[in-house]
Amino acid sequence: MGRAPCCDKANVKKGPWSPEEDTKLKAYIEQNGTGGNWIALPQKIGLKRCGKSCRLRWLNYLRPNIKHGGFSEEEDNIICSLYISIGSRWSIIAAQLPGRTDNDIKNYWNTRLKKKLLQCLLLDGSCNSTQDHPYSSSVNILSSSGASMNSTDSPCSQLPNPNYAVSGAGPSIYHGLEEFPVELHELVYGNQQQFGGLKSFNGMDMANGGYVTNGAISSGESTTWGNVSSLVYPQLVSELETCLQSLPQDHSSFEVSSYFGPQ
DNA sequence: AAGTCCCACAACCGCGAGAGA
DNA sequence: ATCTCTCGCGGTTGTGGGACT
């Protein structure tokens, strides 16, 4: 038995919202609130929409003080550092960015920021400035955020310690990263030719800068770029192969085996 | 100019958590 | 303790528009 549908699918309109629907929904909520029941709300207003759809529309689009697009460098940094710390907990990340919605941030990450990071990872030495490198400053945020995130009056108090080790005992907050070493090993050693002759990563001596030992990240205080990128990197592994293939040959200057330590 | 591809964003879907009966 | 209902979240898909060929 599957889960009961939240609404009568046959009588529910799907797809883009019309201005009329927006107006109805916005006017009602501004006047009456949601009444604590999204499911019943569309019926009250006379909208042929699913309650969940109404909720999403309100939260992501109609709610006052919503900002769309135009993410600043600072917002980039916050998103990146929080993503490194807690993974794809978009609602928590959104809570740190006034006016931004989780959906917006998720889309932004998936479509742009992730690529931006990947690009930086693969461009040797060209991402040393904050301007070019979303993570060079996020590293600072990351290391400094430890204190604020643990303070009880901060919304971040519920966040795990950003210096969390990826492997080891306890529940992993880094969904999917548990498999990282195996996945990466296959990627790297299954594609020796692609990675051959790589010497540095992001302009750093990754052999010395990296913190990875046996696939685990050191849980120490240091948040070097090597450390940070190794946290983020697993998320991008599936895309790396494609990206590397599109790179010019002389761009491949990253010695993966050095960076990730002896196997 | 037309067709195709790619990207960004909006919206949907399914699941887990939590509250209340 | 269990069931039902709703909310909220994160992943995924659909679509429109711009870029490219």
UniProtKB/TrEMBL annotation:
Residues 9-62, 63-113 form the Myb-like domain. It is found in: Nucleus. One of its GO terms (cellular component) is nucleus. Residues 9-62, 63-117 form the HTH myb-type domain. SMART domains: SANT (SM00717). The keyword Repeat applies. GO terms for molecular function: DNA binding. The keyword Nucleus applies. Its main location: nucleus. Keywords: DNA-binding, Nucleus, Repeat, Transcription, Transcription regulation. InterPro entries: Homeodomain-like_sf, Myb_dom, SANT/Myb. This is Uncharacterized protein.
